[in-house]
Amino acid sequence: MIDNLISSFEQLHESVEEENRVSIGPYTGRQLMMLSALSSFDSAPTLGEFADHLRCSYQNVRVLVSLLEEQGCVHAKHDPADGRRLRIELTDDGKALTRRVNAHLDAAKQRYTNLISEEDIAAFIRVTDAIVEDEGYIKTFAL
């Protein structure tokens, strides 16, 4: 049964990535979620603030920001009050892409609301949280 769970998560990941590529373009799901999350800030967050918001490491956010900078979606600039800090902001192209991303996510949320019961969604969240909190088979894998 657990093999089926792991297989289902892998299939879900691939399905989401493929849907995003078809709908939005050559961006990863994480990049798209990052753009959407960045648009929710009233002012440009620091990398640290954004990492906390995304619940991931500073280094991971820095890599994603660098990739999105190369694609012209975001700009990282030094904080005028504290030059050691980098603040992230959406470019005009990033804002346009984010509008498309948010429309796509809103449509997906509506589809899932119609397709999946609240009870099943709550169960999925519990399972996902348990996996995230565990060391997991990927985090503990070593060659």
Polypeptide structure, described:
This protein has 143 residues and is mainly alpha-helical. The protein has a single domain (2-139), classed as Arc Repressor Mutant, subunit A (Orthogonal Bundle), CATH 1.10.10. Helix content is 68%, strand content 7%. The chain has seven helices and two strands. It has a two-stranded antiparallel sheet with strand order 1-2.
Please tell me the CATH architecture by its name.
Orthogonal Bundle
What would you give as the CATH superfamily?
Answer: Winged helix-like DNA-binding domain superfamily/Winged helix DNA-binding domain
Return the domain count.
1
* N- and C-termini, Cα separation: 26 Å
**What's the overall average pLDDT, rounded?**
86
Question: H/E order of the elements?
Answer: HHHHEEHHH
Number of strands: 2
Radius of gyration: 17 Å
- For this structure, the CATH topology is Arc Repressor Mutant, subunit A
Helix content: 55-70%
In terms of quaternary structure, what is this?
A: single chain
The strand line-up of the biggest sheet is 1-2
- Parts with pLDDT < 50 across at least 5 consecutive residues: none
Protein name: MarR family winged helix-turn-helix transcriptional regulator
InterPro entries: HTH_MarR-typ, MarR/SlyA-like, WH-like_DNA-bd_sf, WH_DNA-bd_sf
Domain HTH marR-type: 1-133
Organism: Raoultibacter massiliensis
Topology diagram in text:
Blueprint: H1 2-23, H2 29-38, H3 47-54, H4 58-70, E1 74-78, E2 86-90, H5 92-115, H6 118-133, H7 136-139
Antiparallel strand pairs: 1-2
Helix pairs in contact: 2-5, 3-4
